[in-house]
Amino acid sequence: MARQRGTVESGVLLGLLVLAVEGHADEAAEAVKFVEKLREGYPLVQGCRLEPGGGRVMPGAMPFLHRRWGNPMFSRMARSWFGTSVTDVYCGFRGFTKELWLRLGQRAGGMEFATEMIIQAARHGVEVAEVPVTLHPDGRVAHAPHLRTFRDGWRTLRFFLMYSPRWLFLVPGAVSVMLGLIGYALALPGVTIGDATLGAHTLLFASLALLCGYQAIVFAIFTKTLALSEHLVPQDPRWLRFFNLINLERGLLLGAAALVAGLVLLGLAVDQWAGVHFGRLDYASTMRLVIPGATLTALAVQTILSSFFVSILGTRGD
After folding, report:
1. What is the pLDDT at residue 318?
2. Can you give the pLDDT at residue 13?
3. Looking at the structure, do residues 146 and 264 belong to the same domain, yes or no?
4. Domain range for residue 104?
5. What digits encode the pLDDT tens for the residues 160-207?
6. Is the dihedral of CA 27, 115, 229, 312 positive or negative?
7. What SS3 state is found at 48?
8. 3-state class (DSSP) for residue 230
9. What is the pLDDT averaged over residues 23-39?
10. Bridge-partner residues for 46, per DSSP?
11. CA atoms of 309 and 36, how far apart (whole Å)
């Protein structure tokens, strides 16, 4: 504890960040609470201005949309997506040790700095203490407030998505693939729902969902592989098990099997065409071979190329 306390004392000047985003000098008086938590051994001490975390917002200190919608929404997203324990993710009134700053290796240079610290701390398993603070109205008169509700809200959402390939790529991709598989299950046997008979056109839509969803899932794998290889995120045992299970050779074998199946279906379609001396076909029947065959072939090529690309991305981390 003595070493930790010395570290805190040496890092307070660098690590105690008083950013009173809405700007009021009185907030600096609350810094002592942060120093106390740092001395207790917490690497990161986060302020909370919102009532659920014990904070207080003075009248006129925070716009209604920020207080009741934007900040609570993004704070809930941070807890759900990244596993943080923070109630007020936007609060710039915080204290942290120099060791933590060096460990997190932050890259954001704009307003995303504050949220990046919270996300990275959660990813590194850092214990965070939250301290209630009071937000006073902005007393500056030299220029207008620099915050822009919708512009800054979009910047935060964009940052969250970029730091969460699961929600940007994996989840939408999995939903799209599921819809595509349901479409195939209904269209291949020609199921009739009400007055609608699902056939070749449904297969086309289902194939589109499969291709788009599969591509999104592949992008999630690309992103996670790059992040792990460049040490942008801590090592994830689940992804390491996945990479051990689905390696280059198995990906190539899976792609080759899908390619053979796709080419077989396309060959059967060509055989049907030859059976009528390359004349007119019954497209409702033939397309049940052509569409799955073309889809399987496309997925196979994606799998083979993606397997090589993931292997290249992960080479540095091997």
Report:
1. 42
2. 41
3. no
4. 2-161
5. 888 888 899 999 999 999 999 999 999 988 888 888 778 888 999 999
6. negative
7. strand
8. coil
9. 71
10. 94, 130
11. 49
